[in-house]
Amino acid sequence: MGVPALRIHGRFEQEWAQSKPRGMFSVLLLRARQPVPVTELTDWMWPVGKAPDDPVGALGTYRKRIVHALERMDAPPRIRYRDGSYQLDVDRDEIDFHEFGRRADLARAAAREGDHANAVRELASAIDDLWTGTPVPDLHGERAANWRQLVVSESLAPAHSALFTSLGALGEHGQVLRRLADLPVELRQTLTMVKHRLAAQHGAHRFQEAHSYYLDQRRRLRDEGSLDEADELTRFQDELRASQQEHRVVVPVHLPSPRPAEVPNLLPHDVTDFTGRETLIEHLDRITTSATGQPAATIAVLAGDPGVGKTALAVHWAHLAAGRYPGGRLYHDLNGFGEGPVVHESEVVNDFLTAVGVAAESLSSLSARKVRLRGLLSGQRALVVLDNVRDHNQIRHLLDCLSNCTVLITSRSRLPDMARRGASTVPIQPLTYTEGKAWLAKWLGPRASAEAAATSDLVALCGGIALILKIVGERTHSRPGVALAEFADELRDEHTLLGLGGHGPEGSVRAALGWSYHAMSPAEQRLFRLLGTHPGPDVSLDVAAALAAQDRREVQRKLDALVDFHMLSQPESLTRYRLHDLLRRYAKELASASDEKPAAVRRLLDFYLASSKNADRVTTPHRVPVDTVAPAAGVVPVEFADRDSAMRWVARERANINALMGYASANGLHEFVMKMASVVGEIFQRLGHREDAVAGLRIAVQSARLVGDVFEEACAWGNLGFHQLASRDFEAARSSLVTARDMFEHVNDPIGIAVTDLRLGRLALDQGDASRAIDNELSALRTFRRLRSTGEEAITLYRLGEAYRRMGNLTEAARFARDALRLAEQLGDEHTRGCAFAELAAIQLERGEVTDAKRCCEHALRIHEHTDFSQMGDIHLTLASVHVNTANLRDAELCARRALTYCRGSHDIRGQAKAQRLLAELLYKQARHEEAAELWSLALGSFEAIGNQQAVTDIRERLAETPAVPSIPADRTESIQHPSAGYRSV
Questions:
Q1: Where are the annotated TPR repeats, by residue (predicted)?
Q2: For 732-751, how does the pLDDT look when each residue is reduced to its tens digit (9 = 90+)?
């Protein structure tokens, strides 16, 4: 925090503009990727009454100055201006304010697991390295001042408090006292910090000092009129003294770091003919060894051209050093430069957990999995190889889990951002002529000197690229009767060159890859070509069988042969295969020249569409299915026994599905785009990937329009409106849904009209018009019943229950909700059954039937816990209100905090607002007025964002009635989002 700085040519620069442009940039950083209206910017930039006569013009001038400065960056972000709002398009991960919150969240998760050492590391680095100045110092208006005060109490103070708690758990009471002494006096004198100092003094056995300090602080609090706080301090001091007298100073228990159930070894096989690189191996030994001679917790980046031998060197050195790492050896290919999507950190975390004997699915969130992995790797030193990394962003969060490991990274990029983590960059140059000749001589034997000139030509043509040298060596070795000069002539033929790894024929790769390709049988060659039609990051056995239109077992034999020929790898599973970057391009080129490509692409798309439709059928069995044609001959789609297996398959194939959507759109395969977007959208949303669903539907709209398919365009608009409604983008949702309805009327599709009416009813309800919502939903219900569409009927029934409840007619609401529940149970539709239970619980709560409401909430939670993250927030809100009605404020607060966490995770602003408001009321009832006021302030902003003016007015009144108590609250509810820092910001 502090003056916003830009990273220009690897260095942070603060004096890149004058105060006002920097201030405007600070606000845009705070609201990254969100539109900020000019009116809001004006409030931030100038005190009341001090704005210029033309603030719009002034802001436009500042924007130009900001853009001029940003253009000096290597990858400048964009500032857009549209509809009276500015928006900065930059990842929140690049902003240190959000990085501070992410580290604090990670630390709290570690503390909950009993790993206080990691909690201290995260919190200390966040506080010491990131919070380095006054937030938004270039802004001097009331809004900025209020925000500064709020963010200190909401973020900085809780972080200090959590740090002191974990330090105390480790017995580091002296550190607590030293850090407390460095705090600003206004923060140091809050009740929370006073308690921390007292606890640390007792923990350090400085009892007389603690007693004197207690007396001074109690006197101060009483003099300031804070009698409640003075009494609370007395109670706390009495508890500490009681613990002292019983010789048991109470401190949190520090659990020993967990240990892996087994020592993992995921390294690929070593390169048996490895030659040269002695200097680099010695350098790696040196930079990975600490001053005491032990393996160091450090990062080394091997950077160089493709095919230069980065992976071979990393794996070879890892095998040489394996004995130094009792904690194990882990390896993962991150596909940073493949054609498909890069590997996400979650996949790496899951695989590493599996390798150390932990089932990833036993931990509910990525955060919990990271904490567990970090704990498991925090004991004996482990070696981790991260191969083929695209950029720092791909691994920045993953590295947080590996802070106690030696990490070896390979990449085509220099990864300059890694310098901030203290990483050593090791440039990997092509092999020298001497090294290349020695490598090739191992294969050539006496021929190297007997045909010295041709050997020299071959070495030169290989250009020091290890991959080419290896293939050339194997080919010449297997054909001892062929003159080396012939091989050299073949390499010089420009028509055989792929053109990677250098410029001109001396950098050729195609020839080397062609030799391996032509050495295979015709059937194996065919399969290799067909794999080149797949645009995704990897290929399963099922997909390969569909591409070849052959039996799985037959195809697996061919795949195994390709693995033996080094044309494929199996980095993760015996049924999944991956092409190296160079090989992928070569296979793609071969496929493009093949007459079989169109039929293979058709089989590939049919396989994914049919398999995804099967997954959709299992997860939403009573939804009207998307109409598709039968898959091509030879395609055997995946069948699913249950909902969980279907969800897992879609999650595993998501990157491939997205790649296929982009490929199909770019190549005019619009029928696939239209169908696929509708089939996978619902599952993507339930998996938490709504952005993928929306992106696919936007492509589907374009495809349908291009081919003139009004029905498919209507379906895409309707589904897009559904997701926009879930994101509370009401104007966009209305436009999409009205467009869909008009098109369904045009093609006379009653089901489409009814589904759209149901969604328009939901839109009306969310905008406060329950009467219109009921009219729309009753119209939809009549259609569904007439056409016997029972799945949609059940959904409409519980939606009507919600509409009648919000209108105040609880009798009708209960009738519809119970009808929905009965029908869902008859159909075996668990998802709708869970929604009906949730709605019935809300109705029973309003009728005062709290016991029944609690029972229904518990049923709904059990159903939705593993199937629909987005429903959990509202259910916990209802359960919190149940506990309020039974005067169980502790459980009510717990449920409200859980609701807030779930609503944040699903980007439910309305749910967040309700949870913040309820939590504020609960805190107020417990006389925790300062915390209540802060939650009301947050709720106020949330309700303003969704336009609920009545709630805004009510909360303003509550804030006016609430006594102002200048105290720092305890730790905040942690977000499930884990937004590392490239902008030194606010």
A1: 794-827
A2: 999 999 999 999 999 999 99
Q: Which stretch, 216-225, 244-253, 443-452, 882-891, has highest mean pLDDT?
A: 882-891
pTM over 0.70: no
Q: Count the residues in the chain.
A: 986
- The label of the residue with tokens 């939804």 reads 623
User: Regarding beta strands 85-89 and 78-82, do their DSSP bridges make them parallel or antiparallel, or are they unpaired?
Assistant: antiparallel
Q: Is 823 exposed, middle or buried (0-12, 13-18, 19+ CB in 10 A)?
A: buried
Q: Which of 666, 710, 676 is nearest to 696 (CA)?
A: 676
User: β-strand 383-387 against 36-37: which pairing, if any?
Assistant: unpaired
Contacts of 961 (CB under 8 A, 6+ apart): none
The pLDDT confidence band at residue 403, using thresholds 50, 70 and 90, is: confident
**Distance (Å, rounded) from C-alpha 800 to C-alpha 835?**
12
Provide the CATH number for the domain around residue 709: 1.25.40
CA dihedral 358, 361, 362, 367 (to 10 degrees): 90
Residue 503 has what pLDDT? 39
Instruction: Kindly state whether residue 548 falls inside one of the protein's structural domains.
Output: no
Same domain, 130 and 198: no
Q: Is residue 105 part of a domain?
A: yes
Give the helix/strand (H/E) hosting 407. strand 406-411
Q: Are residues 707 and 643 in the same domain?
A: yes
744 beta partners: none
| Average pLDDT across the chain, whole number | 83
Contact indicator for 888, 925 with CB cutoff of 8 Å: no
Q: For residue 838, is it within any domain?
A: yes
* Closest CA relative to residue 975, chosen from 32, 89, 109: 109
Strand, coil or helix: 332: strand
Domain that holds residue 201: 172-250
Residues 440/462, Cβ–Cβ less than 8 Å = yes
How many domains does the chain divide into? 8
Tell which of 428, 451, 480 closes a domain.
428
> What CATH code is carried by the domain that includes residue 760?
1.25.40.10
pLDDT at site 412: 73
For residue range 81-108, list pLDDT tens digits in order: 877 788 888 776 667 777 788 888 888 8
Residue 875 carries which side chain, given as an amino acid letter? Answer: I
- Domain identity same for 299 and 383: yes
Helix (H, G, I), strand (E, B) or coil at 485: helix
- For the chain, the first-to-last Cα distance in angstroms comes to 5
Q: Are residues 212 and 339 in the same domain?
A: no
User: How high is the pLDDT of residue 565?
Assistant: 64
Pair 107, 189 in one domain: no
**Do residues 817 and 832 both lie within one domain?**
yes
Whether residues 333 and 237 share a domain: the answer is no
Half-sphere exposure of 189 (CA within 13 A, CB side): 13
Q: What DSSP element (H or E) covers 6? A: strand 6-8
Beta strands in 520-666 (DSSP E): 539-540, 576-577
Q: In terms of DSSP bridges, do strands 406-411 and 424-428 run parallel, antiparallel, or are they unpaired?
A: unpaired
